[in-house]
Amino acid sequence: MGFSTYAPSMDSPRRRLDAIAWIALVIAAAAVVVVVWALVTEWGGVTHGHPAYGVLLGLAVLAAIVATLLTLRRRGVARRGGIRKVGRIVLLILAVGGVALIAWLRPHSALEPALAAMESGGGITVTETATEIVLAPATPGSIAVFYQPGALVDPRAYAAVLRPVAEAGHTVVIAKQPLGIGFLALGAFDAARAAHPGFAGWVLAGHSLGGTVAAIEADAADADAVAPAVGLAFCASYPAGDISRSLTIPVESISGTRDGLATPQSIAASRPNLPSDAEFTIIDGAGHAQCGDYGLQSGDGTPSISDDDARSQISAALVRFVETVAG
Question: Is the preceding peptide bond at 140 cis, omega within 30 degrees of 0?
């Protein structure tokens, strides 16, 4: 009686990568590329912003490595069932969304003269932590200023605009927002008050989305017994809703006629939502991004005045407002 033997091929347990696996590898590679792109192009904004974005970049690379290893390791495992395939597709869609989100969250790094304004000197001490930047005069007054940056903007970008406020004798605290989103920093003002006690009151201010968040914080703190909000200043910004009756403190709105984001029309439309005695400073020829020093911004108008001119006028308006509030 005869018999035969079967020697399986050494390659038989291995299967080719299917289309979903190849897509997973491409997405993992794209994640690494986006992380490198963000670090190379906006290194200052990443390293000097809130650490949340840097942590997110690290997690993205780790996830890409793990996904690659799992995909290559399991390529020899038969995948059965439509449910598992649907689950893999859903994970791929989520991964694509995650990579796109990381790219969108890439910050706008600060440029000169903001970087020079971050240096201590001339009676101003500049300190920086993971969550804030502080511009402190040698002899601070009783009123301090808390500033919320615009969305995705390096907080250092406002140092040159706000330094004259510090030079006028008022401590300035600039928030570092998680992922550069003001709504994720709604507790930053309370944290600043706790970290810097002793001030009689605070003027809250902010640029773009940061101004909207500052308005929420000011509206919640204008009646506080200790270190209340005593003023609110917008730069190319306006409140999210009607605070005309609930807000009891002075308000200053600073805007430009060439702003393509917080347009003159939207600023005008915000008047009924603010107290009737709110002051409006309109800078002829200024654009949205000129509230800070971080370069051009998509969707903004084209300014007809220089950055230096716009910065000077914005700083002067802020100093004038804070001085008026301080009495």
Answer: no
Residues 6 or more apart from 15 whose CB is under 8 A from it? 75, 76, 77, 78
pTM above 0.85, yes or no: yes
SS3 247: coil
The DSSP element (H or E) to which 9 belongs, if any, is none
pLDDT tens digits, one per residue of 266-304? 999 999 999 999 999 999 999 999 999 999 999 999 999
State the CB neighbour count (10 A cutoff) for residue 186: 14
Which string of b and e fits 246-283 if b means at least 16 CB within 10 Å? ebebbbbbbbbbbbbbbbeeebeebeebbbeebeebeb
CA 68/CA 21 separation, integer angstroms: 9
Query: Which candidate, 130, 153, 147, places its Cα nearest to that of 292?
Result: 153
| Main-chain phi, psi angles of 235, to 5 degrees | -125, 110
Tally of residues, the chain: 327
